Each structure stands twice: as structure tokens, then as C-alpha cells.
Amino acid sequence: MQEFIAYSENAKNALKAAQLVRNLDVNTLIIGASGVGKKALALQMAETLIIDAKNRDLLSKMLNSHQELIIDNFDAILDLSELELSKKKIVALSKKELSKEIIDKFFAVVIRLDELKDRKEDIKPLINHFIKEAALNLGIEPREIDEKRVDISNNIHSLKRSIYFELFKKSLTQSQIEEILENFFSSRLDEIDLYEKLLPIFERPLLKKGLEIYKSQLKLSEILGLNRNTIRKKLKECGL
Amino acid sequence: MSNELLVGLFENILNPVIIFSDEGNIRSLNKSAELLAGFVNLKNFYDLALNYAPKSFGFKTIMQTIKVDRFNFFAATIGYLSEDELIVMLYQQPSDTKKTKIDKSEYKLSNIYALIDLALISSNKTKCKKEFDLDIPEFKLHQESFLKLLRSIFELLNDEFSMSLRLKVGEYVEIDQKRCKMLELKICGKCVLDVNLLIKQVEQKVHLWIKEDKGCMSLDIPIILE
């Protein structure tokens, strides 16, 4: 069963509700923005198929043949008046709040999942969870990631993406970086004055990181083996 | 008419029958009166009887509306059986059959604590004060209707409210000819909207009774075990 991580009060209440609903034959509505964990929570309630409501024909067919279903994108259904959900166990997922009339008609239980920015206690455990997952999937060593480098703008979707990216980034060898650059350059080799245009790709990150570590242009010039005036000029060209 | 027939009639008649002594003590009561005793002090009917009793032996029937808890009576027959025995028989309005007959196929064995928690989470009101009897067994409820009702009630309330859940000792209701104990769920708090409309809507759908009194709502729930 997919894990649902719950450390914040909102997530703990949601998980508690999901565990209680498991033993009941009632319909549940889970409301929350994209990436808050609606599917993971729904699977705690019912280990069954997830159907996208946008495929109306498939939804009708599955409702006729199944007692238990998870319906994703429930808010996309336009003609709710024709829907028949009684005497079934349905978990409906919606990105938007629905009208009181619809909620009262179809659902005995309603769970609202907050966005990650309002569930701060869940962020670190989620990061740790996806670090382990990414390390396993990518075949690399798990490493600590600075929470500030993790993007939660699209909740778990962006959090997961930024963790995979951070871990992947840390595991790259020089030859792999060169390979990535080769790939990047291959689409641009028909441009003119390309060397001047592409040089910042190398210089900018080098100078930025160097300044961050050494905090002094003089020290940086020593490390890089460049004249101090050259360093100053390049920093200005790179906007640093 | 034989004595056995009369006794059988007395015991099983739907109308509560109470026999008082001349001092107002209860000498005898039939099954219906026993049920009524769970809701009201029967000695209150002694005063009624004294007010309307005939001046000598015999019986008198008065047409009077008497409302007690969920019982409605429209008349009473009062009479002296002997020097020191006063009999009162109350005539009950036909009860709402929805309340005494239910479709049990839709009722499932339920843990009421779990249902209350679910309704609190559904209405985003998880911070209320609770005072619950902890030994209420699982019993049959229409889970969907009950959850929707509770959620509707909780949504009407401000964030700070309190709840108590207790067994009503000595109180019973008859459902499908079976005696069921009663549970009281009392919810006290400031209502944002009109409760009476909700009560009217709900009483038609859910097998329980709702009373509103001084900022508290009481739900009397029958504990249906079979």
C-alpha cells in the first residue's frame, strides 16, 4: 500500500479519517490541490481501481460493474445530477471545493488536505521519504538535502522532482556532465558566435560557487589561476 | 368477560394505564406505562387524575392534549376502582411509524465514537470538548444518514462547542416490537444558523429524536442490537 506521511495535524486527521472509513460502506470526498496526496490517502481507505472522471464512458462502465472505486478529478464531472453513487463505496478526489448541495447528496465523509506550505511538519519526513526512494531508483547513495533547495510550489509533485534532481546532480561525474553539455550543445551548433554565447554556461557557475566559498576575489583569482582584473571583468559580465 | 382476559388486555393495551393508591403511590402499571415511566415521573398524572376524577365511583373521560417528551396524548379516562384505588388510562396519538419501524437492511453495526470522530473531521471541528461514556457497545445505525446529520449539526456551530454521550438509564423505545435502550448525544454551542429547519429535515430521514433546548441539541438514539 502506498504510504501516506502524516506529521502535521491536518494530515494526521486525514489519515485517522481514512483508517476509520476503511471499515464503513460510505462515500468519501477528498478535496485538495494537485500534489497534496489525495490518491495516497484514498488508497488507505480502499485498495481498488482509480478511474479518471474525465473519461465519462469508462466511469459509467466501471460504476455499473464495481462496488468500490476511487474517482479522480471528480470536479470535472459536469452532469452530476445523472450520477448514481448510492449503495457503493466511492472515494472521490477533487481539486476544488464542491457545492454543499453536491457534498450533502453524495458524501457522508469529507476530508480536506492542505497544501504542503500549510503542513510544515510533513515536509522534512516527505523529503526523507523521497530521498530514500530516489536513491533506490537511481542506484545511488542517499544524501542530505538542504530543505531550502526543495520546491514545494506544486506540493509533492515539485518536491519529488527537486529531490530527484538534487540527488541526481550530486551523483554526476565529470564525464556525465560533459555528456549532458554535449547533448545541450548539439541543438545549438548552427548558431554564430556560439563560443561567446555558451562560455557563461561554464564560467558563471564556476565563479558563483567560487565566490560563495572563498568570499574574496583575490583568493578566487589565486584558486582559478587567473588575473584579478580578469576575475573582476568576468564577474561583471556574468552579472555576479 | 373473564379475569384473565381483562388482565391480558390491561397488560398489553397500547395506552398507558396506571393505578394509584389514594396517597398517590403507584399500585400497578401496564407495559406501556412502564415505558412512559422512562421519560416522565408518573406521579404527575396523579394530580391530573385528582383534578378530573368523578366525584364518586365510576369513570370519566376527558379530552385533553397532554404532551410528555415524545409522547402525545389526546384524552384520559379516570375513575375510582375502589375507595383507595384511582385508575388513569391515557389515550396516545398514533406514533410516527417511521420511528417504530425501520428498514434494518440499511443499518450496520457501528462504533459511534468512530462516527462522531469522522463527522468532526468532515466539518473541520476537531477541537470540541468531549465527555463520553466509554462503554457504549457497537449497535446498528444508518451510517450514511447519521454521518451527514452530525456533519450538518457541527457545521452550524461555532468552533468552540462541547459534547456529551451517555446511556439513558431506564429509558427505552420500542422498535419492531423490540425494546431498545437509549443513548443521548448532547451538543452544546453557539449556533450560527437556524436549527429548527435542520431538525425538520433530518427527523424524516434518520431514526432518532432531536430536541433543542437552551443552546444545546440532544439526539436521542435507539441502541438497536438485532
Folded structure, characterized:
The complex is a heterodimer of chains A (240) and B (226). By secondary structure, chain A is an alpha/beta fold. Chain A has helices at residues 9-21, 38-45, 56-65, 100-106, 120-138, 155-171, 174-186, 194-214, 217-224, 228-237, and strands spanning 28-31, 50-52, 68-72, 89-94, 109-112. Chain A is 52% helix and 9% strand. In chain A, helix 3 links the parallel strand 2 (50-52) and strand 3 (68-72). The model of chain A has no long low-confidence stretch (mean pLDDT 91). Chain B is α+β, with helices and mostly antiparallel strands and 226 residues long. Chain B has seven helices and twelve strands. Chain B has a five-stranded antiparallel sheet with strand order 2-1-5-4-3, covered by helices on one side. In chain B, strands 7-9-10-12-11 form a five-stranded mixed sheet. A two-stranded antiparallel ribbon of chain B has the order 6-8. In chain B, helix 5 crosses helix 6 (143-156). The radius of gyration of chain B is 21 Å and the shape is elongated. The mean pLDDT of chain B is 83.
Could you provide a short overview of the structure?
Chain A has 240 residues and is an alpha/beta fold. In chain A, 52% of the residues lie in helices and 9% in strands.
Please tag this protein with its features:
heterodimer; A: about 240 residues; alpha/beta; five-stranded parallel beta sheet; 10 helices; 5 strands; about 50% helix; elongated; B: about 230 residues; alpha+beta; five-stranded mixed beta sheet; about 40% strand
